[in-house]
Design brief:
The chain has 36 helices and 16 strands.
C-alpha cells in the first residue's frame, strides 16, 4: 500500500520566501522527476534542496522534513535501503527536536521505516514501526484520517508477515468495511495470501477474484496493480498444482509488468520466478520412462534459464545468462528476493542431478550437485549478510526459524556429493553448514559480547547499552504481566509499547554507532566462521567423540524426513543419513512424556513397555550403527530440534523383556557412555577456556520459601505459592563435604547476595525453584528467598539479568526444577536459563530437564561432587553419580524420572586434579625408595 509515500508529493511545507527560491525550485524539480519515475534524478534534486535548505534554515529546521521523506522514498525505490533508513532517522531527529517524541508527523517516518525493514526481510521490525506509526497518527486522528487507514492496513500485513494469521484476519475484518473502495483491494489481496497459508484455497480464490474485480472497476484491465495481483495469483496456483491456469496468469502478469517496469526490477524478477516454478513443478506427460527423463530434463533446463533471468532482473550489474554463474553479494536490489531465487535455483540443480543419477549419468550428476552446492552456499552467505542487519533478537529468531530449511538443503547436497565421490571435503562442508544452522542468534550474541571486550568501545558507551537493555527488559516484563491480567489496562499497554519502541530505537542507534566508529568491533562481531573438523580433531583426545545431528522432520506434507549425523573423533570423520517417518517424532515425544510425567509414581506395565520400545527405537536411529566407532568414547552430543529435550543416557541399547516391569536392569546408554551436550561445536571449542580465574571455590544457595507471601498470580501453576524444598539444605551441606566455599541457606539465600558475590567464585550452585516463561524465555527466573524489607531486588533472578553478569565461574550447577527446559526455538534450540549463564561467561552448566525429585536430587548431587573432587570430568562424575543411584535404588526410585534429569552442557573437563595422579606418584616414590635402598645395600656389601 504505497499511497502514504506520496505524502511528500502532495504536501509541501510552506517555505519562507526570502533566500529560499532555489530551495523551492530544487524541491519541485525533485517532485516532478519523482512522479515520472526517475528516482536517480530525484535523489540529486532532493539532496540539492536539502543542502541549500540546511544553509538557509539550519540543520534542524522542520522545513527540511518533506525533502527528507521524499528522498527516503527515492532511496527505497532504488533499493538503497541503508541510505533510506539514515534519511528517515534525520527526519525523525528534526521532528523530535522541534516538536516532541510523540508528534503525529513521526507517523510518516515510522511507516516508511517499516516498509524498508519489510523489504529487508525484517518483518518483526516492520511490525514494530507500523504500530508506532499508527500510535503517532492517532494523536490527531481526524487530521490524519487517510494515513490512519493506510497504516491500519500496514499493521494487518505486518501481522501476516510474522505468522500471526488469526490476528491478521481479525484486523482485516475490523477495517475492510469502513475503508474506501481503493483500499478494500489491499485487504482482499491480503486475506487471499493469509488463507493460502492456512490452506483454505476456496477462500483464497474468492478474495483474489474480489481484488481483480475492484481493480478492474477502478483502473481498467491493464493497470499496474492488476499485473502484480496476477503475479501473486499465479504463484498461488502453482503452489496447489493448477498448472494450466497458473501459466495463463503468469502470461497475463508478464504482459502488464513489462508495460510498467523494466527488465531490471523486482516485479519482473517475480514474473521470471513464476515461469521458472511452472517448468520446475509441472508434470511431464510421457509415453515411457526414457521419454519422461527427456521431457523432465528439458523442463528443468528451461526452469534454470528462468531462474537465471530472475537473478538478472533482481540485481544491479549482473547480466550473465550462464546458469553456472551467480551474482556477487552486494549486487542485489532485494536480499529477500535474491535469497528466494538462489534457493529455487539450487533445488533445481539438485533435482536435475537426481535425474542424472536415475539415468546412470554419474559424472553429469556430480557436476550438477556441485552447481547446486555453489548456489545454496551463496544463499547461506546471504542469510549471514541479512542477519548482520538485524539488531533485534526477535528478528534474528524469526530469520533462523524461516531459513533452517536452507541449511538442511545445503547439508543434503553435501551429503550426496560425499556419497557419490567419497571426498571428505564434502563431509567437512556439510558439517560447516550444520554448524551455521545451530544457535546462530545465540552465537552472534556471544560474538557480540567478545567483540565489545576487544573492540575498544569506551566504558561509558557500554554502560549506556546496559542501561537501555535493562530498561527494555523491564518494560517488556511489565507489558507481559499487564497482559496476563483478566482486565488489562489499555492505557498502560499503550505506554509500555511506546516506551519499548523508543528505547529499542535508541539501542539500535547505539549499536550502529559501535559498528561505524569501532572497526575492530565490527570485524570480530560479523566474522562468519564456525569451528571446522580439523580444529575439533585437535581439541579432542582419543577418548572423545563429537556427535552432531541435523534433523528434517516429516510432516503432513512430507511423509519422510531425515536425520543427518556427523561423528568426529581424533582420527576419523563419519557423515551419514537416516530416513525417518513420524514414528521417530512420536518416539521422542513418548520418551519425554514418560520421563517428565508427574504421575511417575503410578507407572504401569503399558507405560513401561511404551518407554522401552521408544527408547530402543531412538537408539537404533541415532547411534546403533556407529557402535564400533563410539566404543569406549565419551560423547559430546550436539542435538537438534526436539532431541534437545531428552537425555541420551535414557536411550536403551537393547530391547528388554517387557513382560514385567524392572527399571534397574534396563540397558541404559549411561551404562556405556559418559555424555555431555553443547548448543554447537563452535560454541564449545572456540569461545570458552577452562583455566581457573576466580579467587574462591564454591558459592551455593539453598533458599527457603517459608512464609513467602510474594505475588504469584501471574504464573498459574504457582498461584498457591512455592512449595518447600526440604532436601536442598541437605544438598548444599553434602557439597560442602567435598568443595570448600560459602553457603547461603534459608532466608540468607538472597538474590542481592548472589549478584554481589557471583563473579568471584569458580563454582556456582543454585538449589531452588525455577519459574519457566515459555512466552518470553528471557523472563524465566530463579526463585531466591523472599528479600529483606530494605532490599531493592525482588528475589527473582531473570534470565535477562544473568545476561548482564560477568562470571568467572567454570561451572554453574542449576540444581533447580526445569532449568534446562523451555521453549523450543527453531534454528536456536531450547531457550533455557542455561543460555544466560553461558552468555555471562560460564563454560559449563549442569542443569535439569524436568522437575527433579527433591531427595534423590540431593544424593545425586552429593555423589556428583564426590566424583568431581577426585578429578573426574564433569560428564564422567555425573555418569558415576547416576550409576551409583541405580545400584543402590529400590525398585521405585530406579525409575528414570528420579535420576536421569541432570545433564552437563558445555565444557566437560575436570575442575580438580585427579587423585589417581597422586597415587601414581606415591607408587613411583616407593619404587624409587626401594631401588635406592637396594643400591646402598649392595654398595655397602661390596665395601
Amino acid at each position: 500500500m504505497n499511497s502514504i509515500y506520496s505524502y511528500a508529493a502532495n504536501a509541501r511545507e510552506t517555505l519562507v520566501e526570502n533566500d529560499s527560491l532555489r530551495v523551492i525550485e530544487s524541491y519541485e524539480n525533485g517532485l516532478r522527476v519523482f512522479r515520472l519515475g526517475d528516482f536517480e534524478q530525484s535523489v540529486e534534486f532532493y539532496n540539492q534542496a536539502l543542502s541549500l535548505g540546511r544553509n538557509t534554515f539550519g540543520e534542524l529546521s522542520v522545513k527540511l522534513f518533506s525533502s527528507l521523506v521524499n528522498l527516503g522514498i527515492a532511496y527505497k525505490n532504488l533499493g538503497e535501503y541503508d541510505k533510506a533508513i539514515a534519511t528517515y532517522l534525520e527526519a525523525e531527529r528534526i521532528i523530535k527536536s522541534v516538536y516532541s517524541e510523540n508528534h503525529p508527523r513521526l507517523g510518516f517516518v515510522y511507516s516508511n521505516l517499516g516498509i524498508i525493514y519489510k523489504l529487508k526481510g525484517d518483518f518483526v521490525k516492520n511490525y514494530e514501526f507500523q504500530q508506532a506509526a499508527l500510535r503517532a497518527f492517532q494523536i490527531e486522528e481526524v487530521k490524519y484520517a487517510n494515513q490512519v487507514i493506510i497504516v491500519e492496513y500496514n499493521v494487518s500485513e505486518a501481522l501476516f508477515l510474522i505468522g500471526a494469521y488469526e490476528s491478521a484476519i481479525q484486523s482485516c475484518i475490523n477495517n475492510v468495511e469502513s475503508v474506501p473502495l481503493w483500499s478494500k483491494t489491499f485487504y482482499f489481496s491480503l486475506l487471499a495470501r493469509i488463507y493460502t497459508k492456512l490452506g483454505d484455497y476456496d477462500l483464497t480464490k474468492k478474495y483474489y477474484q474480489k481484488t481483480f474485480d475492484i481493480l478492474t472497476q477502478i483502473s481498467g484491465s491493464d493497470s499496474y496493480d492488476l499485473g502484480l495481483e496476477y503475479s501473486d495469483y499465479a504463484s498461488f496456483l502453482l503452489s496447489i498444482n493448477e498448472y494450466d491456469e497458473a501459466l495463463e496468469y503468469v502470461n497475463r502478469s508478464e504482459g502488464l509488468v513489462v508495460k510498467y517496469f523494466t527488465e531490471k526490477s523486482l516485479q519482473y524478477s517475480d514474473v521470471m520466478l513464476n515461469f521458472g516454478d511452472y517448468y520446475f513443478q509441472r508434470n511431464s506427460k510421457a509415453s515411457d520412462l526414457n521419454d519422461f527423463y527427456s521431457k523432465r530434463k528439458k523442463d528443468l533446463l528451461i526452469a534454470l534459464d528462468y531462474y537465471q533471468k530472475a537473478l538478472i532482473a533482481g540485481t544491479d550489474g549482473f547480466a550473465s545468462l550462464e546458469t553456472d554463474v551467480n551474482p556477487d553479494l552486494g549486487q542485489e536490489i532485494s536480499e529477500i528476493q535474491l535469497l528466494e531465487v538462489l534457493k529455487k535455483k539450487a533445488n533445481c540443480f539438485e533435482t536435475l542431478a537426481d535425474l542424472n543419477l536415475s539415468e546412470s549419468q554419474k559424472e553429469t550428476a556430480i557436476e550438477n550437485y556441485t552447481l547446486a552446492l555453489q548456489t545454496v552456499e551463496r544463499a547461506t552467505e546471504l542469510i549471514h549478510q541479512i542477519r548482520t542487519g538485524y539488531v533485534s533478537e526477535d528478528s534474528q529468531f524469526f530469520l533462523s526459524e524461516n531459513q533452517e530449511s536452507t541449511f538442511i538443503e545445503a547439508v543434503d547436497v553435501s551429503y550426496k556429493l560425499f556419497l557419490h565421490t567419497g571426498d571428505f571435503q564434502f563431509a567437512e562442508k556439510g558439517f560447516e553448514f550444520a554448524e551455521k544452522s545451530k544457535s546462530a542468534s545465540f552465537l552472534a550474541s556471544i560474538k557480540d559480547s567478545r567483540a565489545k571486550r576487544f573492540g575498544g568501545i569506551p566504558d561509558s558507551l557500554l554502560k549506556r547499552e546496559d542501561y537501555l537493555k535493562m530498561n527494555i527488559s523491564s518494560y517488556k516484563e511489565m507489558l507481559f504481566e499487564e497482559n496476563q491480567n483478566s482486565d488489562p489496562d489499555s492505557a498502560r499497554i499503550e505506554l509500555f509499547n511506546s516506551k519499548i519502541f523508543q528505547l529499542n530505537e535508541q539501542y539500535e542507534q547505539l549499536v550502529q554507532l559501535f559498528e561505524d566508529s569501532f572497526p575492530n568491533y565490527y570485524a570480530f562481531k560479523y566474522r562468519n566462521e564456525v569451528v571446522d573438523v580439523a580444529s575439533i580433531q585437535e581439541h579432542v583426545n582419543g577418548k572423545t567423540a563429537v556427535v552432531e545431528y541435523l534433523i528434517e522432520e516429516p510432516n503432513e506434507n512430507k511423509e519422510q524426513g531425515q536425520v543427518y549425523k556427523f561423528i568426529i573423533t581424533e582420527d576419523e570423520v563419519s557423515f551419514t543419513k537416516e530416513l525417518i517417518d513420524l514414528t521417530f517424532v512420536e518416539d521422542i515425544e513418548s520418551v519425554y512424556q514418560f520421563l517428565t510425567s508427574p504421575k511417575y509414581l503410578f507407572t504401569g506395565l503399558s507405560e513401561f513397555k511404551g518407554y522401552a520400545k521408544s527408547a530402543y527405537q531412538l537408539y537404533e536411529v541415532l547411534l546403533e550403527k556407529d557402535k564400533s566407532l563410539l566404543e569406549g568414547k565419551q560423547l559430546v552430543v550436539v542435538p537438534d530440534d526436539k532431541l534437545a529435550y531428552i537425555p541420551f543416557d535414557a536411550l536403551l541399547s537393547e530391547m528388554p523383556d517387557t513382560s514385567k516391569m524392572n527399571f534397574r536392569n534396563l540397558s541404559y546408554l549411561v551404562e556405556d557412555y559418559s555424555i555431555s551436550y553443547t548448543y554447537s561445536a563452535t560454541l564449545l571449542y572456540n569461545y570458552f577456556e577452562n583455566e581457573k580465574q576466580a579467587e574462591n571455590d564454591l558459592l551455593a544457595f539453598a533458599p527457603s520459601y517459608h512464609n513467602d507471601d510474594r505475588d504469584y498470580t501471574v504464573i498459574s501453576e504457582y498461584r498457591a505459592g512455592l512449595l518447600p524444598l526440604p532436601a536442598v539444605t541437605k544438598e548444599v551441606d553434602f557439597i560442602s563435604e567435598y568443595v570448600s566455599g560459602d553457603v547461603f541457606k534459608d532466608s540468607l539465600a538472597q538474590e542481592a547476595e548472589f549478584k554481589k558475590r557471583a563473579s568471584n567464585y569458580d563454582i556456582l550452585h543454585l538449589a531452588m525453584h525455577t519459574l519457566i516463561n515459555d512466552t518470553l524465555p528471557m523472563y524465566s527466573k530463579l526463585a531466591f528467598s523472599k528479600p529483606y524489607l530494605d532490599e531493592t531486588d525482588d528475589g527473582w533472578l531473570n534470565t535477562n539479568e544473568i545476561y548482564t553478569m560477568d562470571l568467572k565461574a567454570r561451572m554453574a550447577v542449576l540444581s533447580a526444577c526445569n532449568t534446562g527446559s523451555g521453549k523450543l526455538q527453531k534454528g536456536e534450540g531450547v531457550m533455557s536459563l542455561a543460555r544466560g549463564f553461558l552468555y555471562a561467561g560460564c563454560p559449563s552448566i549442569v542443569m535439569t530437564l524436568w522437575e527433579v525429585e527433591d531427595e534423590s536430587g540431593a544424593h545425586i548431587m552429593k555423589d556428583f561432587y564426590r566424583f568431581l573432587s577426585k578429578g573426574k570430568s564433569k560428564n564422567e562424575a555425573l555418569r558415576s553419580a547416576k550409576l551409583a543411584h541405580i545400584k543402590s535404588a529400590d525398585p521405585l526410585k530406579a525409575h528414570p524420572h528420579y535420576w536421569l534429569g541432570y545433564v552437563v552442557v558445555g565444557n566437560p573437563e575436570p575442575l580438580f586434579q585427579s587423585t589417581d595422579i597422586y597415587f601414581v606418584l606415591i607408587i613411583l616414590l616407593v619404587i624409587l625408595a626401594l631401588f635406592m635402598d637396594q643400591y646402598y645395600r649392595k654398595k655397602k656389601t661390596r665395601d
